[in-house]
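Recap from last week: sequence in, structure out.
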Amino acid sequence: MKVIHSVQEMQARADKVRRSGHSTAFVPTMGYLHEGHLSLLRIGKKKSDDLVLSIFVNPAQFGPNEDLSSYPRSLERDLALAEKEGVDAVFVPTDKALYQDGYQTYVELEKLPGHLCGLSRPVFFKGITTVVTQLFNIVKPHIAVFGEKDFQQLAIIRQMVKDLNFDIEIIGGPIVREGDGLAMSSRNAYLKDHMRPAALSLSQVLEKSRSMVKSGILDAKLIADQAAEILSGFPEINVDYISICDPLTLEEVNLIEGKTLMALAVGLEKIRLIDNTILEP
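Predicted structure tokens:
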């Protein structure tokens, strides 16, 4: 497994792979890998000849007072996990490699970021689309795999790839959960034992909502109100949003008539947790 820090070296490797006629799958991450990330690597491994992972904690997607400096990092551990999964190359750039002095170019969508996480994190998706565009131009993949836990991010990347005519297939990997139902996230490393019941309330809300829809309750407000009531039982939780929306436009719906996204975001002390599910009559 090759570990590459230089943009030029990564691009030269990508060109060589393409000249050989082999296909590359790419999984971009911020590191501190968990089973969710590894599941994405396995998808990429099955669908390509060459598997590339990137590890980069992207400063452009963190707003003021967010956890950029404390975001969990463990490069040695990540590289060991990547090698075990059969990764062929890991791209680990420095901040300066991607945002050199005088950097001034950003990629931004007009509509999709104006929902869900984008409302409370105004710089978040501008930072993601900018760094992903850079990584696509450096790694030059045929396939890129993103997790469905970050549903809005996946929708935005798909739209960006369509709008900018990237010749890259975007694949979504299913949410991977811990044994008790908590959606896997690198930020779960922040959770203390006493926080666990509150953190689990997100997956419990989603399960309750699916049960309501199966029983014939299709009024989005009734489902959202029930979700709010469950979350209110945990005073340490600060709800950012409870959204029941169209999975393509992310616009709120009143009635669940087909596949509908239910997405949640909360603050638990200083930890941000998100989760989602598809509701379907």
